[in-house]
Amino acid sequence: MLAMFFWAFVIGGLVCVAGQLLMDFGKLTPGHTLSLLVVIGAVLDGFGLYEPFMDFAGAGATVPITSFGNSLVHGALQEAEQHGLVGVLTGMFEVTSSGISAAIIFGFIGALLFKPKG
């Protein structure tokens, strides 16, 4: 069990280090870096490589932003098998809607409780 925690920490940290290196040395903006990591997760899932990566890394692969790209493609492909082209669109939203909704709700609550700077 200790090895599971170790690899989750190391892999999750390496994903974050890769993102930071892209911003520092690649001169990418945070938005570009975020988009690139989502696309990398999506492409890896499209080739069937993200599932084995999650099996090995555990939370180290499910917590970073690459997992969002994985969820988008995974949901789209799963629903496309059942409902065709319409499933591609609905599948993406079905799988990711709870995470997006939680981010909006908690962001709103945070803005109510604290004074946002802007």
From TrEMBL:
Keyword Transport found: no
InterPro entries for the chain: Spore_V_AE, SpoVA
Keywords: Membrane, Transmembrane, Transmembrane helix
This protein's record includes keyword Transmembrane helix: yes
Coiled coil feature spans: none
Family annotation (Pfam families): SpoVAC_SpoVAEB
Transmembrane segments: 6-26, 33-50, 95-114
Name by which UniProt lists this protein: Stage V sporulation protein AE
